[in-house]
Design a protein that fits this description.
Strands 4, 17, 18, 19, 20, 21, 22, 23 and 24 form a 9-stranded mixed β-sheet that branches. The protein has an 8-stranded parallel β-barrel with strand order 5-6-7-8-9-13-15-16, surrounded by 6 helices. It has a 3-stranded antiparallel β-sheet with strand order 1-2-3. It is globular, with a radius of gyration of 24 Å. It has 2 domains: about 140 residues, Lyase, Ornithine Decarboxylase, Chain A, domain 1 (Beta Barrel), CATH 2.40.37.10; about 260 residues, TIM Barrel, CATH 3.20.20.10. Helices cover about 30% and strands about 25% of the residues. The protein is α/β, with parallel strands linked by helices. It is built from 12 helices and 24 strands. Helix 2 runs parallel beside helix 9 and helix 8 packs parallel to helix 9. The protein binds ligand LLP. Ligand LLP binds next to helix 10 and helix 11. GO terms for molecular function: diaminopimelate decarboxylase activity; pyridoxal phosphate binding. It catalyses: meso-2,6-diaminopimelate + H(+) = L-lysine + CO2. One of its GO terms (biological process) is lysine biosynthetic process via diaminopimelate.
Length: about 425
């Protein structure tokens, strides 16, 4: 993946840095991010729009991995930002991210989160539901402050990896249904509002998608709706946001497309329908999360105990697990790994990689082909950069790992390892007196 290689000691290197040295210096479990790969991906999306002469915003969907340093990298790479909570917005602002390039998502934004967005003068709120429209009207009118908005719609196109399905009505907690009049009602509620400036429509059809037809079909549906609104109300939208969901390669079964292929695919459809329906070509916004940071992240663990279940399998246990990567337990997600200090040896053995948490489902990889493993070896699990750290927990009171960034032979801490002190920092002593029963 990315800049990974094997050095003269047989160690895995990332960004020109020896992963075994990183494990020694920063401890394990450790997330290592290869910045070059993130930059290349970001540029892959942005340059494609430029080449095609299409105005665009590529917003990093930061739920995939959020911290101050990654927001600063996103700023350096001219990305916009998709945040989904006050916490992500706060982190982005602390990072010095330009607020006019921040888009705020979520199906239940609180009043105070929305006020925070207005205070911060963010670029756009992606409106999800009728309750939110009420809140936005109230806040914007009270402040006499403008806010740009998109309406999130569910187009009845749902895509996963190789397939997509279309349904008349999507059973989704997100957005206004495009097919049953909800989206039209929402449009009528906001189109002439004094302070809410409607830019256009948004949809997100799924995650880990390996084909372009689903995006094309969604684009077609949204463009047709915009065509109707132009005809009936002379409303012309300026933005079409087609969400994220571009796939990455976790294992060899996954066959993602290059960023430019996804972009070219969707642009073709939008241009076709813009011409057909005599609409001005809108700006295209997209929201890649996983495809920017997913395969740039590698988790390093130290192997501890081992167990043989005769005639069934060999287990090796690492010093993290579902507390830093819940995806195998939650989604049955698959990963590949190598022994980082023996990366030059062939993977002729098979082990099930267990975590250290008190839960039998805490397995990172079942039956992984690996080098011969001994206690003390460093295990590198690939492609953990998206929804790994960001979904980490303190289950079993395990401190969250540290995060290190590497690039061109340099390395730096991006997030400190949590300490036991951090873990108890919000705990308070028992102060109630024993009751009488
Ligand atoms: N935009 C919207 C509105 C989204 O809901 C999402 C992801 C994205 C963009 C970014 O999607 P991506 O490019 O990362 O696929 N925790 C799950 C993934 C949940 C995705 C939620 N929404 C996982 O670990 O696979």
């Amino acid at each position: 993946y990315g800049t990974q290689q094997i050095n003269e000691n047989g160690h895995l290197t990332i960004g020109g840095v020896d992963s075994v040295e990183l494990a020694k210096k920063y401890g394990t479990p450790l997330f290592v991010y290869d910045l070059q790969l993130i930059r290349e991906r970001a540029r892959g999306f942005i340059e494609t729009f430029k080449k095609l002469g299409i105005k665009a915003e590529v917003a990093y969907a930061s739920k995939a991995f959020s911290c101050i340093a990654i927001y600063q990298l996103a700023k350096e790479e001219n990305l916009s930002l998709d945040v989904v909570s006050g916490g992500e917005l706060f982190t982005a602002i602390q990072a010095g991210f330009p607020t006019e390039r921040i888009h705020f998502h979520g199906n239940n934004k609180s009043y105070s989160e929305l006020e925070f967005a207005f205070d911060s003068k963010i670029g756009c709120i992606v409106v999800d539901n009728f309750y939110e429209i009420e809140l936005l009207k109230e806040i914007s009118e009270e402040r006499k402050q403008k806010m740009r908005i998109l309406l999130r719609v569910t187009p009845g196109v749902e895509a996963h990896t190789h397939d997509f399905i279309t349904t008349g009505q999507a059973d989704s907690k997100f957005g206004f249904d495009l097919n049953n009049g909800q989206a039209d009602r929402a449009f009528l509620e906001v189109k002439d509002h004094e302070y809410l400036e409607l830019l256009g429509l948004h949809c997100h059809i799924g995650s880990q998608i390996f084909e372009t037809d689903g995006f094309g079909l969604a684009a077609e549906k949204l463009m047709k709706k915009q065509g109707e609104w132009k005809e009936q109300y002379q409303f012309e939208s300026t933005v079409l946001n087609l969400g994220g969901g571009f796939g990455i390669r976790y294992t060899e079964e996954d066959t993602p497309l290059e960023p430019h292929v996804y972009v070219e695919g969707m642009i073709k459809t939008v241009q076709e329908y813009a011409a057909k329906l005599k609409l001005t070509m809108p700006e295209i916004w997209i929201e890649p999360g996983r495809s920017l940071v997913g395969d740039a992240g590698t988790s390093l663990y130290t192997v501890g105990s081992r167990k043989n279940v005769p005639n069934i399998r060999d287990y090796i246990a690492v010093d993290g697990g579902m507390s830093d990567n819940i995806r195998p337990a939650l989604y049955d997600a698959k990963y590949e790994a190598v022994v980082a200090n023996k990366a030059n040896e062939e993977r002729l053995s098979t082990y099930t990689v267990a975590g250290k948490l008190c839960e039998s489902g805490d397995k990172l990889i079942v039956d992984a082909p690996l080098q011969q493993v001994e206690s003390g070896d460093i295990l590198a699990v690939f492609c953990t950069g998206a929804y790994g750290y960001s979904m980490a927990s303190n289950y079993n009171r395990i401190p969250r790992p540290a995060v290190v960034f590497v690039e061109s032979g340099q390395h730096q801490l991006a997030i400190n390892r949590e300490s036991y002190e951090n873990i108890i920092q919000n705990d308070l002593p028992l102060s109630l007196k024993k009751g009488e029963y």
